[in-house]
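Q: I'm teaching a short session on how sequence maps to structure, and I want students to see two examples side by side rather than one. Could you give me a first protein with its sequence written out and its structure tokens following it? Keep the formatting plain so it prints cleanly on a handout.
A: Of course. Example one:
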Amino acid sequence: MAASRLPEEILERIFSCLELRELLCCSVVCKKWHNVLNDGNNLAWKVQCLRKLARDVLHGEVLNNVPTYKAKVRAFIHAFNPADCSQNIFIKPNGFTLHRNPVAQSTDGARAKRGFKGGRHSWEIWWEGPLGTVAVVGIATADAPLQCHGYVALLGNNEKSWGWNLVDNYLMHNGDQKGHFPQCNNAPKYEVGDKIRVILDMEDNYLAFEKGYECLGVAFRGLPKEKLYPAVSAVYGNTEVTMVYLGEPLDG
């Protein structure tokens, strides 16, 4: 194919004119195209970032731990879904942060745009406002409820979700407390701004957490072989939660 013999700088310019879906298709056409697009900081991925991300996000603190333009685009397409959250929540213009409106006697959740049935995945979540009485981070199926009356651990309140309540350090699933987490004496309480790294392994079917690059352990094992989505639930009015997808977790 003649196009495969084009210089890499010409291919970059051509790729930079394409839409994301077309770009992903190009990456599997031939080895040379794959190698060009495998460079996460080339022109094509930079252009995608400029198209999809607000400039203050692209160069701000939210994506500090996301090293390349390609990874930033990937984080955006895995961010909170504005069409899949409680009516009391909206996703801010940065695309990564949810804001819970001050509605009394309501627990409200949000799911990511994409879920996972295979592979290993990690993402970071942090609260940028008060937690209130319940603040839960975890995973949910596509049909798990995202709003309920009262102040409860919505993630983990049924068989379709699994959650860790950061306020009392309890794990929740199917409406039951599954024990304290992490399992250590005098486990520290979550503080606003702390980054929690969530690790979902759909090969060995477990959910684990890290904090400050310290492994806190496996929270849930035996997860079902169905698509599971990153999710959170919150109760405090005007609190905000940010989620950034990081890709496959680093071991060791």
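Q: Perfect. Now a second example for contrast.
A: Example two:
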Amino acid sequence: MDFEPRATRRDITGTLCNPEFFNYGVEAYEACKTRSLTSDIIDEQKKVLEADLVIFQFPLYWFSVPAILKGWMDRVLCQGFAFDIPGFYDSGFLKNKLALLSFTTGGTAEMYTKNGVSGDFRYFLWPLQHGALHFCGFKVLAPQISFAPELVSEEEKRGMIASWAQRLRNIWKEEPIHCTPCWYFGQ
């Protein structure tokens, strides 16, 4: 797609609200209301609107998404399109849609446990699932995590793929997670 991940002044095709002091959030919000965002952003927003389920597939980088996906979220899920104030979390504009994070890690499953060297994987999912996706109203499904696929046997890789394929066949029967601190951090 050659998607531009950087949020810049070039994202606004119309007149700026305040040309003397550029504030991306304010300008993107106003541009969203007047359909004055660049076509790449509008095209991606149309895809989100047409989807019932949005799957974010990525390799885990530094306990988060790669920069290009972060940039996609920053530019596409802007105020006025995905949320407003008020109009977030359960009232977010994407409240009738499902979202799922599907990612690979460089570390083993044991590394991402409560007592593992990296801590429970739920800790680093909080800002992504709760702070970004649920904030925009998405009902978030449990993540699909493929731990260290480059370190496992071919048989184990085939098992990961088969497990994911089976899950996708039944995905519409799944219930969203409860995006609350308890789900992420325990009691």
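Q: What should students look for in example two?
A: Point them to this: The mean pLDDT is 96. Also worth mentioning: The chain has six helices and four strands.
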